[in-house]
Amino acid sequence: MQRMEDEKPKKTITPYLLYCVSTAVIGSLQFGYNTGVINAPEQKLRLFFQNVSIERYGEPFTAGANTMVWSFAVAIFSVGGMIGSFSVGAMVDRFGRRKSMLLANILAVLGGGLMDCPA
After folding, report:
1. Which of 32, 61, 79, 111 could join 66 in a cystine, given CB atoms 3.0 to 4.6 angstroms apart?
2. Domain chopping of the chain, boundaries
3. Within 13 Å and on the Cβ side, how many CA atoms surround 116?
4. Domain Major facilitator superfamily (MFS) profile, which positions (predicted)?
5. What are the pLDDT tens digits along the chain (119 aa)?
6. 16-25: b or e for each residue (b if 16 or more CB lie within 10 Å)?
């Protein structure tokens, strides 16, 4: 049987399409979660910024300056993720997938260990 030209193909939702859509949605949820993670310690970081300002300059930041420093810290968090995602290709080309993942995990464990050390 030959299909007529004005007959359109039937559009169906396939399991593969659902898989792709759900993967994209989960990626968006992870981005939102990670943005929330940086906002969780907001008050402690703002207090830290104030203390550093007092130690270095002898006076605390104004409310506007404190908000500006906080905004910069949150923006740098996202920019760092973008730079990291762009550098993955070069790392994989140079070290291979397995060694790149191992290197990233070593850096994550090292960072976690340094957060545990007292200042």
Report:
1. 61
2. 15-116
3. 6
4. 20-119
5. 555 666 776 778 889 988 888 888 887 777 777 666 777 788 998 999 999 999 999 999 999 999 999 989 888 877 888 888 888 889 999 999 999 889 888 988 898 888 777 76
6. eeeeeeeeee
